[in-house]
Amino acid sequence: MEWNDTPEQSAFRTQVSALLDEKLPDRYRDRKGDWQNDRVSEDPQVRETAEGWVNALAAKGWVAPHWPEEYGGAGLSSIEQFIFNQEMAKANAPRTGGRGVALLGPALIVHGTEEQKQEHLPKVLSGEIAWAQGYSEPGAGSDLASLQTRAVRDGDEYVINGQKIWTSEVHTADWLFALVRTDPDAPKHRGISFLMMDVKSPGISIRPLVDMTDEHWFNETFFEDVRVPAANVVGDENRGWYVGMTLLDFERSNISGAVTQRRAINELIEYANTDGMQISRLAERPTLCTEIADLYIETDVMFNFSFRIMTMQNAGQIPNYEASVSKMFASELLQRAAKTSAKVIGLYANISNADDDRAPMDARYARNYVHSMCESIRGGTSEVQRNIIATRGLGLPRG
Ligand SMILES: Cc1cc2nc3c(=O)[nH]c(=O)nc-3n(C[C@H](O)[C@H](O)[C@H](O)COP(=O)(O)OP(=O)(O)OC[C@H]3O[C@@H](n4cnc5c(N)ncnc54)[C@H](O)[C@@H]3O)c2cc1C
How many A from CA of 381 to the centre of ligand 1? Predict the structure, then answer.
């Protein structure tokens, strides 16, 4: 495999980095802001920054680089998307549009009616509407098809009752797409519909779940006699499972994760080599140095998994268990890296306040340590990924 860019790819890379040089706000370059929060910030300047950034990407069609051009995307090839994601990650540039771009848009493009596409896709691209994902419930996570939130047809509407959990960022979102049960008597995968609803609909209430990072990201979302127009079903009633699984996330190669991990390991090595106190601590702990060497190698392995997924996509193949290998390896590597980094930094790794002068590298590693814990749960747990690799990948019997 040839990893070097062709002249065309190199020209495209230059275009992307030129836009980043010119338009990426310092707030994002310096990792000081989160785009989805910024767009609803109380500070008008922060809101303006978020808007300016989405407009800069939109002018190139790069809010949704993987969507077809007819829907406002850039219709990039897998390799171009890979290059785009690589350059964005290198510059710390946030992607905009969140779940609307990554999840809802692709599902609507494949399964939505023309009216639904016309109504929702432009608002995703302009950053006007942010979406949240209502799939998980207290009794339905890995076994998602057990979900119980009920939707009963009443004339031109559905009436929704039930509860979702772990609904990330629904408190800063405008609309929610959810899987709901429309036929409780059908086999469990067949009685589910995919429904879009305005988060401000009467009967929806949101309760924050503050996690161990002390951040408000998750929520519980409750539905009490919420009325949603029947026209908001995507695809056919009771066939929502298949719509919900059209998660054509444009980042299946996870190149952003690989670039970020490479930068993190390089920063850690630089810190270990330049801080006098660390140099003498590390000299006394050679096993810690070999741990860093292991991480360095594993980071390269992660990169190569990303290349493999991208190569498959570019050849028109759909990564299956290969995506599980990549996801599982990456999430567990991030956790190992966080632990080793904490050992290198020592007691100062307990400081999570970025403004505390004693915290090395703006306390990034302290925050990574707790954040990395969720990596092996979100988007399918490591246990579930191992099941997929064992059965679909290796042909071993199901337990
Ligand atoms: C950061 C983050 C963001 C999230 N955002 C959202 C969101 O926006 N919207 C949303 O709907 N959900 C969201 N989730 C929820 C996520 O999809 C679920 O947490 C995940 O699917 C696991 O489900 P669960 O938490 O119910 O755990 P369970 O499925 O109850 O699993 C509990 C444990 O049992 C293990 N287990 C389960 N089944 C098997 C099996 N067959 N074989 C072996 N082990 C098994 C699991 O690996 C796990 O260790 C988010 C989660 C995280 C961490």
Answer: 6
- pLDDT tens for residues 90-118? 999 998 989 999 889 989 999 999 999 99
CATH for the stretch 131-244: 2.40.110.10
3-state SS record for 193-238 = EEEEEECCCCCEEEEEEECCCCCEEEEEEEEEEEEEEHHHEECCCC
251 is catalytic: yes
- Do you know the residue count of the chain? 399
CB 268 within 8 A of CB 341: yes
Distance 165 CA to ligand 1 centre (A): 10
pLDDT tens-digit series, residues 119-132: 999 999 998 999 99
Strand spans (E) along 344-391 = none
**387 Cβ below 6 A of ligand 1:** yes
Active-site choice (119, 220, 237, 251): 251
Taking the centre of ligand 1 as the mean of its atom positions, its distance from the CA of residue 204, in whole angstroms, is: 23
Task: Tell me 173's DSSP state.
Answer: -
Q: Give which of 234, 225, 230 is closest to 156, Cα–Cα.
A: 230
Contact 363, 353 (CB under 8 A): yes
Per-domain residue ranges of the chain: 7-96, 131-244, 255-393
Query: CATH homologous superfamily for 7-96?
Result: Acyl-CoA dehydrogenase/oxidase, N-terminal domain (1.10.540.10)
Ligand 1: does its nearest atom lie under 6 Å from the Cβ of 118?
no
Decide whether any atom of ligand 1 lies within 6 Å of the 142 Cβ: yes
Q: Which CATH class is domain 255-393?
A: mainly alpha
Atom of ligand 1 nearest to the CA of 383: 47
pTM: 0.91
Q: Which helix (H) or strand (E) element contains residue 153?
A: strand 150-154
Residue 264 alpha carbon to ligand 1 centre in Å? 27
209 lines ligand 1 (CB under 6 A): no
Task: Please tell me the distance from the alpha carbon of residue 337 to that of residue 258, in angstroms, as a whole number.
Answer: 12
Average pLDDT for the chain: 91
